[in-house]
Structures are given as C-alpha cells and as structure tokens.
Fold each of these.
Amino acid sequence: MRWSAVLHRTLMPLSSRLSAPVLGKTPKRVTADEAVSAIGSDTDIYVHAHASTPTELLDALCKRVDTQGLSDIRMIHILLGGRVPWTDKKYIGKIRSNCLFLEGSLRPLVKEGNADYIPIFLSDMPSFFHNRSFPVDVALISVTPPDDLGYCCVGVNVDTSLAAIESAKKIIAVVNPKMPRTYGNTVIHQSRIDSMVEIDRDTYGNPEGMQITEEELKIGKIIAENLVEDGATLQLGIGAIPDSTLLAMKNHKDLGVHTELLGDGVVDLIKSGAINNSKKSVMPGKVVTSFAFGTQKFYKFLNENPMIHFDCCSWTNHSDVIRANSKMTCINSGIEIDITGQICSDSIGKAFYSGFGGQVDFMTAAATTYDGQGKAIIALTSRTNKGKSKISTTLTEGAGVVTTRAHARYVVTEYGIASLGGKNVRQRAYALINIAHPDDRERLEKEAFQRLKCMPSP
C-alpha cells in the first residue's frame, strides 16, 4: 500500500540529538536567581509550555528585570501554565511575548498591542525553530530528575520543545520529581543542560471533576453513535466535548488514539479495553500524542507508561502520518461557523482568542486518508453561554477562518449532524440551519435567502 511505503521510508518517529551525552560537561546546580543571572537585555527566550511551564525561572527573570533594568526580552511560547508574571503593566516595553497559541492572561496584552500573536499550524512550529526563524538564545524548560545514566525526560510536553531546545544557545531547566517520566521521543541528557534548579511541586493541570453540560453530553453521544466506528483511530483534545464523546464510547471496540493533545478522558477507555490500539496502522499498540494536560491522577497514569508514546508535533501532526492511520476520526471544535462552512476557531470577532493549533493539520489529513475511511468533524454547541447562535449567515466582522469551507466535512451540534462534503453552498446552508437552535432557524433562513438569493434546500 502507498501509505506503508511512505511511512517506512521517511516518516518513522523522529530522533533527537539531545539524547547524546556531551563528554566532560555537567550542569551547574544553582538557585533560580543564579540560573537567570547571565540573561541580559535584547534576548530571545523560549518557555516550555502548559503543564511544564517553569514558573520559578520566570519569577526569577522578572525579578532580574526589576533589579537590573533589563529591556527588550522577547519570549516565545505556546500556552503557559500557572501565573504569567510579566502580565503586570510594569513589564510593558521590557518583556514581550510572541504567542504561538493564546491563553487567558495574555489575551489582554495582545489586544492592547503589548504582546504578539503568531498564526501558525502546530506541525510547522518546529521547523521555524530549526531554521532560526524563531531564534532562541535561552530555553527555559522543565525536566524530570536524571536517572542513573544521566538521562532526563521533558515529561508531558514534547510538542515544540525538542526543536526549541536543540536550537538554543543556553538551556536552563527546573528539575521536578513530580513531572511524569514519559516514553517516546522525550529524552535529554543532563550534559546538554547548562543549569539545573531543583523544585518539588505538582505539575500544572486541570482540577478534578470537570462539569459537562446537557448539550455537550448530547453532542458526544451523537458523535459516538453515528460517526465513530469500531477500530477507529481517534484525534481529540481536552475539554467538555471531547470528554463527553469519550464517555459515550464505552461499548466501542478496538479504538486507537493518534492525537496532538491527550487528556483524562482516555484513561477509563484504556482501562476497560475499548482503547487498545490494536487496529492502528501507525504504531499499533501505542497511544500517540505530542503533549498532555489533565489532573494529577492523569499524570500518575502517564508516568512510566510504555503504552503512551510522546513525540514532536512535526511528526504527530504530519499529514502523511495522520493519513496513514486506519479510520482516522478527528474531532475538533470551533467558536463560530457560517452557513457556507467557514469555521472560526482562533478569534472572537476582531479579538484573538486562542490559535490554529493542529486543527487544520488533522482536518485536512482526515478528509484525505489513504484508506478512504477518515472523518473530519467539527463539534460545537448551537449557542454561546449568552444565547447567541454559533451558526451565522456570515462570520462576525474580524473573525478569522481557521478551517476553510472546503475542509468542512461533518459539523455536529446537540441538534444533529450536518454532512457538508461535496455539497453546494445552498445545500450546506440547509444542513447547517437544521442543526442550529430551533429559535434561530427562521431568522437564519431569511438571512440565507438574502445572501444566496435562493432558499436553502437539500
């Protein structure tokens, strides 16, 4: 088969130079203040993301900015966990974030012009570090304690970290015994690290007991019962809709996982045997992911678990790798969708809200799988918490299109499924209006007629 030849020639999991020891070099064991003491003005800094955010180093850096009058510190990162200390107004003009994906505390800074947002596919991020388009003078990271041979692990956040670390001139790490030691492309030898700061705290994550609404439960059930087959390979992230979908898959068989982001929802299905990865074409027997975020209980499940394979997002999100999976079923979400199938996922009107992430990577590949059985799914509730329809005649002014109308195949709300593949605009409008909230449908039909000059129809 074509996918098999391609996979085995060029797309086996990536290897990293970071596992090779540097002879005669050992890291300095220092305090956080000592670790950042060599950082000066006009410096490009990579910050390890999400669960792995090294807050102790960020606090020490901000303290150094305060005491030494540093300026023009440029931070590049995906989502950050914990506090982001430079959101204080006193750091404006001194520390500036380049956000590859936005989170709550940095949205106001981007909106006010005091931080920047980079629209980019997750699969592309490592290449920009490798070719120095994203320069890195210093990488601030989190690792596990070294083992007897001196090997540390980057834990639950491989994503872009390996590429950034490889390109960095200097590497500073917090060493946390509570960081899960994970399998896959996750190893860095301690001799590659310049300075180590020992800490002991819980890895950043979600609280126990996420609430799922009735609408989200309905969406999960609709997806599980109508769009997920036995033997499917799943991509889905974290949050209420992915978790509700997983809850509804208890009776499925031989499911596999190939995703960019892994959350708590998979654990019960793995323990019950519903997820066993036996039918996967790529790395059968393994759950494949690039990073993970969840509860402390989830992190204990990941610790030294050989079933979970972590790898660089340039591989997990590579279109040919995704296409090679059997029955690849990708479930993503959106903020808003218009009646032609344009999906906005990174902004609310003119305000940047999140980022591209891997949605387009997976949506594109799932619709063009080598076995012809992939499914590209967008799931969202029909209305916002404030009662505004998420299905609109035209996108809100300023809203950005992440997934184009040509990529949209299945859209799911609590009212059903709109199948858009191969449909003309009139048919798409009809299908999408039929899964809008009932109280919004008459208005949407009238607006659709005004826009299309004909009535939406099947």
Note: The CA atoms of residues 151 and 189 lie 4 Å apart.
Amino acid sequence: MLPRYSREFLLSGFDSKPTVTRRNFLVGIVVFALVVSGAYAWRQLGRPGLIAIPPTELAPPLYTEYHEAELHLPQHDWSKTRPGDGQRFFFVAGHVRGLGWGNALQEHLMNAYLAYRAGRIFVFDNYTWNDDGSLCSKYNGHWIPSQIPYSALIRGPIVGEPFPDNVHASPAVSRVYFDQVCPKKLKLARNAVHADLVSKFSAELVTDAWVTTIREIEDPCVEESRKSGPIYVHYETWGVRLALKDIWSSFSTSPIITHFGWSSLVERAFDHNSGLIIPKTLSMPTLADHPFTSNAERYSPIPGLLAIHVRRGDYEQHCPRLAQNSDGFVGVTNFQDMPDQFVVLPKQGGETTIDHFEHYRRRCYPTVGEIVEKVAEIRTSPAGTGINQLYIMTNGRPVFVQELKEALLAAGEWNMISSSRDLVLDWDQKFVSQAVDMLIAQRAQVFIGNGFSTLTSTAVMMRLANSFPTNSNRFW
C-alpha cells in the first residue's frame, strides 16, 4: 500500500505564504506530528518526538506536494515488499547533513554517478539540514525547513525521472520506497571499501573501488553505512586540487550531468524574474514554455549577462579559517586550466601571518573597491565583450548590496544591475533561492565566482559540462 503524505493531513496554509488566516497552525502541527510518528513516509526523519514549532508567521514551507509526487513515481510499485526481478539498489546513508546547497548538490551528483557506474538503481533522500525529527530548524536566526525534497530543487534521472532512451538504466527511487522493498540491507563501511586505495585523493580511484565492490555483491539491497559518513569527503575530494580531474571526462558526459535539470519551482522563479536577468535587447523563450531536452540545450548562455558571486555573512569568519587551514579553491575551480588560479602560500614557521590572512581575504572576501576593479577588468576582456547587465548573487545585507550597486554604477554604464535581494519569489521559492542563483550563474555570459564556495564550483561544473568557454569562468 502506498504510504502517504496524505492530503487528509496537509497542514492548512503551511505550504504557502504565511497569512493571518493560520489560526489552525498549532492544531495542524500537532496532528502532523502524530501522523509523522506513525506514517511510513516520514520514517527517514528520525526520532518523531522532536518537532520544532516556529511562530506561525515565520513557518517555512514543508514542500508536502513534492514529497507526495516522489511517492507517486511510476517506478514505485507499492504492492511489493521486496525488489522486483533484476532490481538492484544503492543508497548512500551517510550523505552530508547540515551543509549548504552547493555541498549537498555536488555530493548528490557524484553519488548518483557512482550508482550509475555500478549498474545500480540510485536511491535518493532529501536535501537534509537536520534529520533529528524536527520539521523546522533555526539557522542564523531564521526558521528553515529541516529537510527539502530534492525534487523541489532539481529534476532528472537522479530524482526519479527517466533516463534518455539510449541509456539502459533505471531511474532513481526514493528512500521511502527503498525501505519498503528492502527492509534488510547489506551495509558497506567506507573504511573497508577504501582500505586498498592507492590514493584517496582521486575521485576516479574512489569511485572504481566502490563500483568494483558493489558489482561483486549479489544482494539487491546495498547501502553505504550512515556511520561511515559521506563517500566523497571535502578534504579528500572537493577541497583537493585536481581530485576530480581524472573522473571529469566520464562524469561530465554521463546522463547524470547531461540530463540534469532544475525543478519547475526554480525555473518558474527564473522566468518570473527574467526582467532582472535577461537584457531587454534579447528575446528568449521562458523555460516553462519548452519541454525538457538536455542540460546544455535548455540552459543556453545569456549574452550580455555578467553574474558575480559575492559572499558575505558567514564568510567573514569562514575566510580566516580557510587561511589558517591553508585551504585552496574547491571542486572544478582548481583545475589547472582555469583562469585566476589561487596559489596556497607556504606558512613561515607554521604561523598564519597577517600577509597570509590578507592573501585569502582578497580572494575570498573582496572589498567593494576590489569587486568594482575586477568587474571592470572582465568587461574589457575578450570574454566580456557586450556585457551590459549585471546580477549580484549575494547573502549580503541590503545596505552592503546598495553600496556595491552604487559603486558599480559610478564606475561604468549598465543597462541594469540587480541582485539576489531584488528577486520576487513566492514563499516556496524563498527557501530554494540558492538554486535560483545557481541557475542564473550557470547561464551567464561570464561568471565571476568565489573559488572557495561549493555553490560557485557547482555552477562552474555545469558551465564546463555545457561547453561554456573556460575563460568565461573567473574568480576574485
């Protein structure tokens, strides 16, 4: 029988913009908590007793309709209590939790690619900030969903849509369905699989080790143990120079990437704000008007648009930590053919000096003046020919964004300068706005990113995979 995020207990008003009509919120949340504790569909949320209840007017969406749609994927046969003939699953239970969207997406893509290489059906979970049983969590003083279904953020075979016709592979299934047909699982420990690795700093060697191990297993229900943590960890993969280089060719041309897409929720936000993104001189169809084909075809370049990623907020503390750890750029941003290479300077006597901190600060937390200077440099470069519209991806405070806009306008003429703060988003879209920013960065004629950011590196990953010129990716 199909487990339900039943329409009988959808929270009245909880998945829409908060209004004064939410008088039944507390009653609804209690009912929901009771159903959660017994509903199979929410078993993945952990201990059901821990239900965070934010004030009504601050309650974030739960994306219930997306959870329901995942449960109704055609490959989910709820009459079964074990895998069908030929069905072989793989789930990474130790996937990242409590990290930003860029971290989660890059890992999700790589885990799906591993399953694809191993000939297994990929099992997807939620984008998880917190799986302690809470519905909402507090971050930086604001309530956010503890978990968001991946289908509210992305689309493609890795969230259950079909592979292209020429690919002989089965689309992903939800963790809820995996638990239904695989009550008993064969669990693999990361340390055991990695025991004989020649180098743990090669994504290709790590993937090969897992593929070899999994292919030797007959059990249809294979799970990487949650206790093992992520398969691809930052200080062995994403944060290691060239760790992705040996796998890049096969990974970037696999259907995991070529048929990756953004969710309808994200695309609607892009379409609705196209006036802030697409130069008025261009006539480009809305994404909603066209059926999905491929990543490269759907997300073509937007001529004239420069997108820049300006991190503030937590990066005021994060950038000095990077200096203390002597960290480099992350993911594909540290490929040797990328412009604006970052060189990790050796420390004198192991000390992190003022010069060392400043070396990182310029590349990680540039001042308004440094941002203006870099933008001017790009506009005079061959890659920047014709740029007349600027979009600022930022978590900076409004007063900072206004200061930056005024400085950029004073330094040169623009048809328009807009920012993340200017986007008009509905309540559901506000909590996936990082994905909207990433889509804009993916399509810009030129993108200036923060090489230490996984959001930047994942956007650049898509640009490279879609054959954008390498020199169209720049960094502070």
Note: Residues 4-50 have pLDDT under 50 and may be disordered.
Amino acid sequence: MPCLDLLAQLREHHESLGALGASVIAVGGAADYQAQHLQDDGVPFPLLLDPNGELRNALGVDTKLSKREMMSWTSAKNYVSVIGRRRQGKVSRTHAEDRPAVVILDDQLKMVWSHVGTALGDYPTIDEIKTAITAEVKP
C-alpha cells in the first residue's frame, strides 16, 4: 500500500524531522503484520494500530474515499507505482477506503495541521510536512 512508501520516507527523514522538534508516530488500521514487518526492519518510531478508527474519528479525518476516488487515475497510479517498488505480500483491505491522512499535533495534542487525501496514496511530500512543522512547532 502507498502508506508503506510514506513510512519508508518518514524513516529516512526521521532525524531531520526530530531536528525540527517533531516526534513521528505512525497509526494504521488493522494490518498488524505490516506493522510487525516494519518494526522488524527497524522503524525508529512507534507504530500503533487503530482498528476501530477511534483516533481518526477523534481527529475528524475518518472519512472514506468514494468508489469514484478509489478508481481514479491518481489512485491507480499511486497504487501501481508502490506495488512496483515493494513486495509486501498482503494488502489490508479492511481500511483500504480510509482517506490517507497526515496530522501534526502540538505539545497539547491539539491538531494544528492536517492533510487529508482525495485519492489512494495522496500523501503530502516530506518537504510539505517539514514546512508545516516549521510553521507550527514552537520551541
């Protein structure tokens, strides 16, 4: 899934994100085998599961992609590009329709920035995330 691609980028940029004052925590649906695989590969941040979508709901990002959005050219392109680069074996279908989302919380756990995708794999770039952190994280 494209979320694994984002997690790989977050792992690669973990130190530079930390230098900006950010802590990375990844939250996924119910694919515990994917989380275990990532932890076995040495992901340097916590990987949490939210199988009932309670955190997504609390943050207001618990909306589903429509069938049209799931079948869009952008969704297909994002999915196929990741499949070509990664061999993960299994795909979590339980949460496949969840909109891709990245949020930034302040030290009081208030959401100060979010990106909610409109297609499968529609995540912000690392540069967009860094820009948002720089704008929102107060030393």
Note: The two ends are 35 Å apart (CA to CA).
Amino acid sequence: MNIRFHPPVRTVADLLHRLGDIPADRVRFNPVPGTATVEDLLRDENRRCELVDETLVEKPMGVRESLLAIYLGELIGPLVRRQNLGILTGADGTYELLSGLVRLPDLAFVSWDRLPGRRLPDEPVPNVVPDLAVEVLSASNTLGEMARKRGEYFKAGVRLVWEIDPRARTVRVYSSEVAFADLTGADTLDGGTVLPGFTQSLVQFFAELDRHG
C-alpha cells in the first residue's frame, strides 16, 4: 500500500487539519486515506464524495442547502439556455479540477469554450473547470475547508465563486481567492462578466426558505 501524503500525515488529527479541520465522520476510511482514486470515487454511488489528497471526503447536503442550490439553478437556467452560454450542473456534477482533485460544487456553470468540442463531456468525472462554482454552506463546512476549496477553485481557473450561507442569509462573492464582497438581504446578486445579464434580489432569493403551504 502506497500512501502518498506530502508532508506525511501521522495522526487522524493531522489528516483532518490537512482537509480543513473537517469533522472526522466525513472522511471515508475505505479505501485508506492517501490511497483513493477516481475509480474509488465512482465505485461508491451511495454517497456524495469529493477526492482530496487521495482521500474520499463526504459532502453532506441538507434540505435547505439543496433547496437553495436547485432554486438558484432555476433562476440562472433560463438565461443560460436563452443565450446558449453553456451548461449548468447541480450538486452531483463532478469535476476533476486538477490531477487527482475532484470537487462537487453545489451548482456550477461551464461556458461552451471550456468544454472539449463545445459539447457535453462523456466522462463521468471530466477534466473540466467551471466558470462559476457555487457552494451552499452546510453546518459541517469549516472555515479551513472553504478556504482550501476556494484556493483550489481559483488555482484551477474558476472565474467566480459564490458562497451562500442559508442561516445568515448572505452571499459572499469571490472574484479571486482573496477578493470578495459580502451581500446581504438588501443587495442584488450579479453574474458580472461570467453570467452577463443575471441579477437576483437576495430578499426574494432567500424568501424561498420561508415559503409554506
């Protein structure tokens, strides 16, 4: 067994810290951390996992997070289709951002120019980098985890990252790993040059959480 951590990981605490101080119950130990591959990721279809440092890391998603991700896709989708800008994928859309690094944004937009042949990829885990990556924060997400993830997104070539906090009802818009703007209920989310023409009132967006029968 060849475990490939650099620098070496000696304890579970070291591993969790490396992954952003995430809860231990999100780390899969079959296969052993440091030995997992994309094939292992595809083999386990029962859970949503990312592949980070040759380790399978579960990505749980609650009802509120899922609702907001789907709703945002419903809002963006008509613009993307009307202008034929590219494709949108949901929480199961899997991307190999860098060699051996697989992430699952809760929502992603990929322009046609980033897709080989300007067509949908056939591979289940394509080596494709989205223009926009959206992360809807769950209770188990940590500051360290999200900081690492943002760094990887922008290193790979993602142009825009939106972090949505359902509890605070805020959106943090990153145009680079360190440049961001915090939006609250009084603000409008803007697609900028990535999704030209897209705007959405956050008051109206988060009101979806209050809808009832």
Note: The domain at 63-210 is CATH 3.90.1570.10 (tt1808, chain A).
